[in-house]
Task: inverse folding
């Protein structure tokens, strides 16, 4: 208890998956939390699932953080609610399931059209840039902070498809490293986690792959997907003062998938 006492966290993608798990965990560890997402009903589901004792420390705001207007809305909401922002966890993004909503967005470079490429990059990479651009000055004014990006092992793996997705995740990783160098003297640490195959709505259509033992072992030596809660604990470590000598780190949480490469 109390690992984040006195901290204010802005968490994107809080309507489901890793973002929702981070919101729940960070509140339990003493933070005040503003959860951000594009769909208010999903955010409300997250809020409704919290323990009553955390309700006064939680806020939600529906905003599209892939736009400057959405980022300004989210940041201002956090400042108005709690006065500052000490922690950013950027868990919002789209993955393989986005193909259903936006056909062609997860294709290879020859078959993904320029507009689909730009769409995925805007949601998965530009949003991280826009958030950090807005929040770094707030953290500087407050004496420092911790930024945690949720990337993917696909950011350093070659895949046969989803090229815009893999490029965006790779961009997040190197932007994380670059910001860690730029803002270290401002007491701002910047790190990211790189999840493997995680049981979230993003991949729910292919979770049945783990039903086959041979396929499951290929996907992860642990033969199971990770959970959002397991990712949230990684974010908690990087957000907390337990990781004060940690910046520019990519914390891989993948059940050992990349260990054999």
Result:
């Amino acid at each position: 208890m109390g690992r984040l006492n006195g901290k204010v966290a802005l968490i994107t993608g809080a309507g489901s998956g890793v973002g929702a798990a981070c919101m729940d965990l960070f509140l339990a560890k003493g933070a005040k939390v503003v959860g951000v997402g594009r769909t208010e009903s999903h955010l409300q589901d997250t809020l409704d699932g919290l323990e009553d004792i955390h309700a006064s420390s939680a806020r939600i705001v529906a905003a599209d953080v892939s736009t400057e207007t959405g980022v300004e809305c989210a940041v201002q909401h956090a400042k108005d609610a709690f006065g500052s922002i000490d922690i950013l966890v950027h868990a919002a993004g789209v993955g393989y399931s986005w193909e259903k909503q936006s056909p062609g967005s997860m294709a290879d470079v020859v078959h993904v059209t320029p507009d689909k490429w730009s769409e995925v990059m805007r949601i998965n990479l530009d949003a991280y840039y826009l958030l950090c651009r807005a929040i770094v000055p707030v953290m500087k004014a407050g004496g420092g902070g911790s930024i945690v990006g949720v990337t993917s092992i696909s950011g350093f793996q070659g895949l046969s498809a989803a090229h815009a997705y893999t490029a965006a995740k790779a961009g997040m990783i190197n932007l994380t490293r670059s910001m860690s160098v730029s803002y270290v003297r401002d007491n701002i640490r910047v790190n990211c986690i790189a999840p493997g195959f995680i049981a979230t709505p993003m991949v729910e259509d292919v979770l049945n792959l783990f039903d086959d033992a041979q396929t499951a072992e290929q996907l992860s030596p642990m033969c199971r997907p990770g959970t959002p809660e397991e990712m949230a604990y990684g974010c908690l470590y990087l957000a907390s003062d337990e990781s004060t000598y940690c910046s520019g780190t990519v914390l891989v949480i993948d059940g050992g998938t990349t260990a054999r490469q």
Observations:
- The domain at 8-254 is CATH 3.40.50.720 (Rossmann fold).
